[in-house]
Specification:
Blueprint: H1 10-20, E1 27-32, E2 38-43, E3 46-51, E4 54-61, H2 70-78, E5 80-84, H3 91-96, H4 107-111, E6 115-116, E7 125-126, E8 131-143, E9 147-159, E10 164-165, E11 170-171, E12 180-181, E13 187-188
Antiparallel strand pairs: 1-2, 1-5, 3-4, 4-9, 5-8, 6-7, 8-9, 10-11, 12-13
The structure holds flavin mononucleotide.
Flavin mononucleotide is lined by residues 26, 39, 41-45, 59-61, 69-71, 95, 98, 100, 181.
Amino acid sequence: MQYAATDVAPHERYKILAAFIVPRPIAWVTTIGPTGVVNAAPFSFFNVFAEDPPLIMFAINKRPDGRLKDTWLNIQRTSEFVVNITDEPLALKMHNSSGDFPPNVGEPDYLGLKLAPSVDIKPPRLADAPWSMECKTWQILNVKDDRQLVIGEGTRFHIRDELWDPKAMRVYTEKYHPVGRMFVDRYCRTDDRMEFPAAPVVKAAAAE
Ligand SMILES: Cc1cc2nc3c(=O)[nH]c(=O)nc-3n(C[C@H](O)[C@H](O)[C@H](O)COP(=O)(O)O)c2cc1C
């Protein structure tokens, strides 16, 4: 079976893309609104793309009725945000924070999520997240005026102590349980892992 991208409507393309490109990591983004309300929302069109500088990107679209999401407006105004990662104990609250909240109601406050101050920027991080990165906007790419690709440069990493061996600079994988997004309201656990020996290094045949 195959489709030309131009033969399917955007919402059908979304299904074809979002059903197969899984599991996706989730950026749980905290920002500050104009009156100081702390906002949190999850975004799974998200990944990391570089370490020098540390760059992540995520995509925010408009709501179906055309309204701009709080995260969009807050980043546009302040150029500051925190990307928090969700693990299993936080997953349901992450999911619930995707509800439609008015701008003056902060999801962390409403859902009882603890906040911790950031160091380099104003928006706080989620205190119980296993990993958070303070970010400043590096660049924003506008996609057809209804989506923004926000590229953020990380200025500081926060890691829950028990998860990290600072000497070896390694995560204790058996203690780290991030969740991934499958389709719509489905998620996956990540603790059934596998490991392979090093991939082969194949030398080019000598020229005759
Ligand atoms: C797991 C998950 C991933 C999501 N990913 C995205 C995404 O990549 N882009 C987007 O615009 N909305 C995404 N959403 C929907 C937003 O989280 C939702 O619209 C939210 O209300 C936006 O909140 P805000 O207005 O506080 O920014 C996702 C929702 C969930 C539950």
